[in-house]
Design goal:
The chain has 342 residues and is α/β, with parallel strands linked by helices. It folds into two domains: 133 residues, Rossmann fold (3-Layer(aba) Sandwich); 160 residues, Dihydrodipicolinate Reductase, domain 2. It is built from ten helices and 14 strands. Strands 8-9-10-7-11-12-13-14 form an eight-stranded mixed β-sheet.
Length: 342
């Protein structure tokens, strides 16, 4: 039984690195943050200073045993995401767990089963859905301005850095894979958000440059039952950070470039196609998004999930399907698929 709550949730953040800090900033001062938790006591204490009255701890048991905590944000390395999320769910806490949510789909299935039994909500942290340009694209598509969608094309990549192939993301035991499970899951999630389910999964992953056991590039083709196609390329040999997503419908197209910061100004261009089919679209509509509010928007959505007792989007069902696609590509490409359990 899923339960709604009219009470303001009280939070704890487990994992106090870069993403944990973004999550705390997105929470602001209301709703209250009771705990920051990290294996590194110094890091937990530094983050706790941003929230008056917040207590820094190094063990999750303290957090989960406190009945005042009703919602937990899990922002750890990939290998710890699902085990901590599962423990939080079993303790009756609602959970926002960072993408990809687990090392494999089986781990997320276990979390889903426990969440259903406990009647709690679990959201996967796919914040790209909450970027201004992506929300605007969703609005345009839902209004029917592109007509029936035909295909989606997206690219996402960064250039790594010296020593990148010795960081935790290059360790399959900690990350579950390479670029596909890192940035690639964002594109898979967005493709599913716009086009739906993909019964046909094709493509491959490869290690082209970095000296590591995981992939640094992946090329993916996904098709719906009605032959709508998503063509995706993710890379950590991009050398210059980039994000590009294009949506093509029968009566227009959308181009999104940039995510802010080193990825460049986030911009959406909507090209309506004139009825006369003159060979080029009409004057485009251009929208710039100079501020990234995705973290705050996603946090508010999670609070509404709890308050309204609604199913999160992106939730466990979508997160499981995304990891199933990742695993299919890894198997096809000869990379080991994590079998870590909970």
């Amino acid at each position: 039984m899923n339960r709604a709550s009219t009470e303001q949730p009280q939070f704890a953040v487990i994992g106090c690195g870069l993403i944990g800090r973004k999550r705390v900033a997105a929470l602001g001062k209301n709703p209250p943050l009771l705990y920051t938790c990290d294996l590194d006591a110094t890091r937990a204490a530094a983050l706790a200073q941003l929230a008056p009255g917040c207590v820094a701890v190094t063990d999750t048991a303290t957090v989960l045993a406190d009945a005042r905590v009703t919602a937990v944000i899990v922002a750890t390395l990939n290998a710890s995401l699902a085990p901590i999320a599962l423990a939080a769910v079993r303790a009756g806490k609602h959970v926002l767990v960072e993408k990809p949510g687990a090392l494999n789909a089986a781990q997320l299935r276990a979390v889903r089963e426990a969440a259903r039994a406990a009647g709690v909500r679990v959201r996967i942290g796919y914040n790209h859905r909450c970027h201004g340009a992506l929300l605007k694209a969703r609005e345009i598509v839902d209004a029917g301005a592109l007509g029936p969608l035909m295909f989606l094309r997206a690219r996402y990549g960064h250039g790594g850095r010296k020593g990148y192939d010795r960081e935790w993301r290059a360790d399959p035991a900690l990350a579950g894979g390479g670029e596909l499970i890192d940035q690639g899951v964002h594109l898979i999630d967005l493709a599913g958000w716009f086009l739906g389910e993909f019964p046909t999964v094709e493509g491959h992953a490869t290690t082209s440059f970095w000296d590591m056991k995981v992939d640094d590039n992946a090329f993916v083709s996904l098709r719906t039952a009605t032959n709508q196609t998503a063509w995706l390329h993710v890379s950590c040999t991009e050398w210059k950070n980039m994000f590009s997503l294009e949506l093509y419908g029968r009566t227009g197209k959308i181009i999104i470039d940039g995510l802010g910061g080193s990825y460049g100004l986030e911009k959406l261009i909507h090209y309506p196609m004139p009825a006369e089919m003159l060979g080029k679209p009409t004057t485009p509509e251009i929208h710039d998004f100079p501020t990234d509010d995705s973290w705050a928007i996603e946090t508010r959505a999670f609070i509404d999930d709890i308050r309204l007792g609604r199913e999160p989007s992106s939730g466990l069902d979508q997160g499981i399907r995304t990891l199933e696609i990742v695993e299919a590509i890894y198997r096809r490409s000869g990379y080991p698929v994590s079998v870590a359990g909970l």
